[in-house]
Amino acid sequence: MAFAGMEWIIVIVVIVLLLFGAKKIPELARSIGKARAEFTRGQTMVEKEIREAERMDTEEDAKRKREEAKQKTEEASSEGSEEAEDAAIDQELVKAAVALGIDPKGKTEEELRVLIKYKMEQG
Known about the structure:
Elements: H1 6-20, H2 24-79, H3 81-99, H4 109-122
Helix pairs in contact: 2-3, 3-4
């Protein structure tokens, strides 16, 4: 059953006036407004906390990846210059992958290259 329009709104207003009286309606409206404002404030706070937690997780992941790449570079530099160059290339691939939003964990160098190329083509 759909509302017919303005007639139903008038009927509802009359019923509310009869139930609550003309003096109670402003109080009721204020209470509803305060409750809505409190709900909106709480919702905003929760959304802010979620964004902050996501940002911190992202920062921690990036920091851990930088440290892992640095360790790889240090280990490779102690083994030889050719391996150091490979580690530097791997580190650059990891940086590029992270910048494009690709998770480099458990992926080979070739897989990272393919994913980076795909992301670059997609724009």
